[in-house]
Design goal:
Number of helices: 8
Helix content: over 70%
Radius of gyration: 19 Å
Strand content: under 5%
Order of helices and strands: HHHHHHHH
Oligomer: single chain
Number of domains: 1
């Protein structure tokens, strides 16, 4: 909502609209919206080069977003929320980071690239839905200064974008597997005797 409109319609009456837009939770929701838009663009893109460009942008967004959540947001809310919610979020991040590491190690010409990115998108959409329907509404009620946390998160985002992201443990794991030769084919249970 524009500052002019807030002023015209009664100022303080609409403070809740503008303050939530600029706090940590609002920031995370904007990140979610950006990455969901990129997933939709990937799904409708027809050219391989276009898909690769969109995937690269989505992966960068996801890497920065997960780093900020894991370093700052999750620790701030974890002590107040049930471990089950937070542990599941950790595991969903781990799965996404594994898929991202595998995508980074792949050539976009690989016939599994699109499928792997689609699985990443599905996994992340599920994670977003759980965060926005469960974790974030619970977090909103916590005694946390989400505006200050959001400012800290924005500073960290700028830092990560300027200096780059360090490799994740998942990146290291995928690189180790890739350098030991081809990954063995996993056969369906019906084929194994």
């Amino acid at each position: 909502m524009s500052n002019w409109l807030v002023g015209e319609l009664g100022g303080e009456m609409f403070d809740w609209l503008t303050s939530e837009e600029n706090d940590a939770i609002g920031m995370l929701k904007r990140d979610h919206d950006r990455v969901k838009t990129l997933f939709e663009q990937f799904e409708t893109a027809e050219r391989k080069a276009e898909k690769q460009k969109i995937a690269k942008q989505a992966i960068q967004e996801l890497r920065v977003h997960s780093a900020i959540e894991e370093e700052l947001f999750y620790p701030a809310v974890r002590e107040h929320l049930k471990n089950g919610v937070m542990n599941e979020a950790d595991e969903e991040h781990h799965v996404a980071k594994l898929l991202i590491a595998e995508l980074d190690a792949m050539n976009a010409d690989n016939d599994h690239f699109d499928a792997k990115f689609t699985v990443l998108a599905e996994s992340v959409r599920h994670h977003i839905k759980e965060e926005e329907n469960d974790m974030l509404p619970k977090a909103r009620d916590l005694p946390i200064d989400f505006r200050a946390l959001g400012e800290k998160m924005e500073r960290r985002r700028a830092e990560l974008q300027a200096t780059g992201l360090p490799p994740t443990p998942e990146d290291t794991m995928v690189r180790k597997v890739r350098t030991k030769g081809p990954v063995p084919e996993i056969k369906p249970a019906s084929v194994i005797k």
